[in-house]
Hints:
By secondary structure, the chain is mainly alpha-helical. It has helices spanning 3-19, 43-61, 83-96.
Amino acid sequence: MSTQSLDIIYAAIDVVNDMEEDDMPLEKSPETKLFGTDGGIDSLSLINLVVAAEKIIETETGKTIALVQEDIMSMENNPFATVASLADHLDSILAES
């Protein structure tokens, strides 16, 4: 995972944490669980995180990308499981664009 992708995800986490009224902010760590059967954030927070990340990417790189793609459900490893897996997924999308 690249530093650029982690920085983008962390900035998106800041946006989500600012939106949430929860006392438990999402931690900025590669190991932070995002979504899955063993914990993570709710689906609305995940959507907000994805939208925030896509906007940050567009602002910083000028590229318009979609983190959620048609084949995402057929992937062996869930790219939304942790911050690290999302950063790796972002790296692969940015490499293709």
